[in-house]
Amino acid sequence: MESFSRKHDPSPSPCLWVGTSLGMVLIISLNVPASEEQRQTEPVVVTPSGTVLTLKGAVLTFSCLDCMGSLIHPSYEVWRDPNSTDDNEKTRKRKLVAFSPSSSQDMSDHQFAVVCSEKQAKVFSLPSQTCLYVHNITETSFLLRADVVTMCNNVLLACFCANGHIMTISLPSLRPLLDVNYLPLTDMRIARTFCFANGGQALYLCSSSEIQRITYSQEMCDSLQEMLGDLFSAVETPEAQNRGFLKGLFGGSGQTLDREELFGEATAGKASRGLAQHIPGQGGIEGVKGAATGVAADLHRARIALDERGQRLGELEDKTERMLSSAEAFSKHAHGLMVKHRDKKWYQL
Fold first, then answer.
1. Got the DSSP string for 110-157?
2. Residue 220: count of CB within 10 angstroms of its CB
3. Which end of the chain is least crowded, N or C, by CB within 10 Å?
4. Is Cytoplasm given among the entry's keywords (predicted)?
5. How many secondary structure helices (H) and strands (E) does the chain include?
6. Does pLDDT of 285 surpass 70?
7. Residue finishing a domain among 190, 207, 223
8. What is the Cα Rg of the chain in Å?
9. Beta carbons within 8 Å of 218's beta carbon, 6+ residues apart
10. Residue 193 lies in a domain
11. Measured torsion, CA atoms of residues 253, 254, 256, 259, in degrees rounded to the nearest 10
12. What's the domain range around 335?
């Protein structure tokens, strides 16, 4: 991203921020050729700047804000179809676009670097690298996920803790805004897939085929019903046309008849108690097939579990045999050593 890699840099330049599990952030300076023609002949020069920022716990995320507190998005290149037949060839050149709400002069004067780890968050002023704000997020637990997001035209730090708490912290002042107990860590799938999005939303995989979407914004919750879509459009069923006797007899097309219409009590009268009565089941053949499929899946999982248990028992038996052979060898060597030095005095050893 475009930032200050050293204390006395006059303007931001491309650099790479590397966070480590020991709580250190290393800033590496990148010297990128300016034009596309130079990129074909000149390499990208990578040099360590010597700047190291330290925090408590493993680093999770970092981002940059301009002097107005707005999020600085990474630069990007506009993609255009190389096979396009546009007449204007000048517009097809690749151009680097910087996405920032402030002017380039303000951005070169001052920046805020937000760094968050498993235990705390810090805000540094760039290029002076002065630590302006420090906030210890948790002492008894640790963070699983942290992201810098935007909500209601404001930038904040959203965190998901291992004890199930969802917290939001203002930027760059690092003031706690929200701390709510949502879901304790009961499944590692949630810890691996949990992520925050803009607008006060978050997503995670609650199962191998289901995505859970949550929101911690009241504005998003109020407009949730308007955002729900329909799988189909409701259309009223038209009434069937009346068919004459001759048209039905010589029309050549079959007519669908209802079982209840032919043999129901309304037409044939009430049946006697001695006759059998058809009582349809709840699921029919499809329900039986679904139940059989579920039983087969359970049996398959049980067989896989038994195979894994047998494999573990076999590995345990091999380890036991190896330990027994090692113990026998040790006993044999110890007995030989004892026989060898049994008749010797202590000064003869």
1. -EEEEEEESSEEEEEEETTTEEEEEEE--SSS-EEEEEEEEETTEEEE
2. 16
3. C
4. yes
5. 9, 17
6. no
7. 223
8. 36
9. none
10. yes
11. 160
12. 307-343
Lowest-confidence pick of 77-81, 269-273, 303-307: 269-273
Domain boundary among 198, 223, 248: 223
CA 234 to CA 203: how far, in whole Å? 30
The separation between CA 334 and the C-alpha centre of its own chain, rounded to angstroms, equals 58
| Residue 249 belongs to some domain of the structure | no
Residue with tokens 């998005």: 73
pLDDT of residue 85: 63
Q: How far, in Å, CA of 17 to CA of 59, rounded?
A: 11
* Cβ neighbour number for residue 246 with a 10 Å cutoff: 8
Contact 146, 161 (CB under 8 A): no
Q: Which two structure tokens, joined as six digits, stand for 200?
A: 């006060």
Count Cβ atoms within 10 A of the Cβ of residue 5 and give its class: 0-12 exposed, 13-18 middle, 19 or more buried.
Answer: buried
CA-wise closest residue to 61 among 117, 23, 5, 113: 117
In a domain, 287, yes or no: no
Q: Given this model, what pLDDT does residue 196 score?
A: 92
Which residues lie closer than 8 Å to 165 by C-beta, 6 or more apart?
Answer: 141, 179, 180, 181, 182
Residue 271 has pLDDT above 70, yes or no: no
Query: Both tokens of residue 132?
Result: 């302006």
The count of other CB atoms within 10 Å of the CB of residue 337 is 10
304 φ/ψ sector (left φ>0, alpha ψ -120 to 50, else beta):
alpha
Q: Residue 251: which pLDDT band, with cuts at 50, 70 and 90? A: low
Length of the chain counted residue by residue: 349
Instruction: Supply angle C-alpha 79, 97, 112, rounded to 5.
Output: 135
CB 114 within 8 A of CB 134: no
Q: Tell me, yes or no, whether 219 lies in a domain.
A: yes
Cis peptide before 12 (omega within 30 of 0): no
Closest among 108, 106, 79, 102 to 2, alpha carbons compared: 108
> Rounded CA gap, 135 and 174, in Å?
6
Is residue 66 over pLDDT 90? no
Angle at 132 between CA 65 and CA 29, to 5 degrees: 55
The total domain count for the chain is 2
